[in-house]
Write a structure and sequence with these properties.
This protein is an all-alpha fold. The protein has a single domain, classed as Orthogonal Bundle (Endonuclease III, domain 1). Helix content is about 70%, strand content about 0%. Helix 5 packs across helix 6 and helix 5 runs antiparallel to helix 11. It is globular, with a radius of gyration of 18 Å.
Length: about 160
């Protein structure tokens, strides 16, 4: 779905009353029951779990993980994040991304997105879905969860 189609659909949804699918509550409860006993890769290797702990790298690393995850399974994303941390001088952060060979980085993520984050957001990432979707390689699927997590992390930093 393109960003323009997403915007149009989002406006349409906000203006129309949507009806819930038949028996969605039953299906949802079955999924909840199943997930109580089953550990999925996303539980241990989801994008929000792949970032290192220093606060200045959590949100950029989460965005990078999310960009990678749109193309790979969680296990592959986790391995790619570990590889980037080991291969980039100084670890995986905005500065190291800006310094690395573009050909190497293009195999993993968008250097242009890192440049925008550095120049326009002081090395952090945008707070809103709309601003995140302006970054190369970020679409609606990525922007919603990432914006929510970024705002949560920033709120926790203030406490």
């Amino acid at each position: 779905m393109t960003k323009q189609k997403y915007s149009t659909l989002n406006k349409k949804i906000n203006h129309e009353q949507m009806q819930s699918p038949h028996s969605w509550e039953e299906v949802y409860q079955c999924i909840k029951d199943y997930r109580k006993t089953t550990v999925a890769p996303v539980d241990t290797m989801g994008c929000e779990r792949l970032a290192e702990k220093p606060n200045d790298v959590i949100t950029p690393q989460s965005l990078i993980a999310l960009m990678l995850s749109s193309q790979t399974k969680d296990q592959v994303t986790a391995a790619a994040m570990q590889n980037l941390r080991q291969q980039l001088t100084g670890g995986l952060n905005i500065e190291s991304i800006m310094q690395v060979d573009e050909e190497f980085l293009d195999q993993c993520i968008s250097k242009q997105a890192a440049k925008i984050c550095k120049e326009e957001y002081g090395g952090d990432i945008p707070n809103s879905v709309e601003e995140l979707m302006k970054l190369p390689g970020v679409g609606p699927k990525m922007a919603g969860p990432e914006a929510t997590q970024n705002l949560y992390i920033k709120t926790q930093k203030r406490k």
